[in-house]
Amino acid sequence: MRDRTGVLDEIDGDPMEGVANLFDVAMVFAVALLLALVTAYNISELLDPTSSVTVVKNPGEPDMQIIIKNMSSIQILNMTEQLGGGQGIRIGTAYRLKSGQVIYVPENETPPAA
Question: Fewer beta carbons under 10 A from the terminal one: N or C of the chain?
């Protein structure tokens, strides 16, 4: 159908053309959202192959993980119930108060004069 101005010819185009434009808009939105998340959480260092980053996930929880990224290698340490040990000398005692505060008292150190 052709009219004097040629307007109807432009409207009778491919009906799937609009769907392709929606797909393009969705892809641009997805990339923008990904960049916004990387920027918001300051995780751009995780993507940099020359940086070193340590992340503690769920601190203090039984499923705590320590993620260590050193240059291009990534190591994930899962917390377990096992105790660590080794050789060394005793340097003091730590006490946990009812408030949750931890106080360290070094051994063989004279208290300050009152």
Answer: C
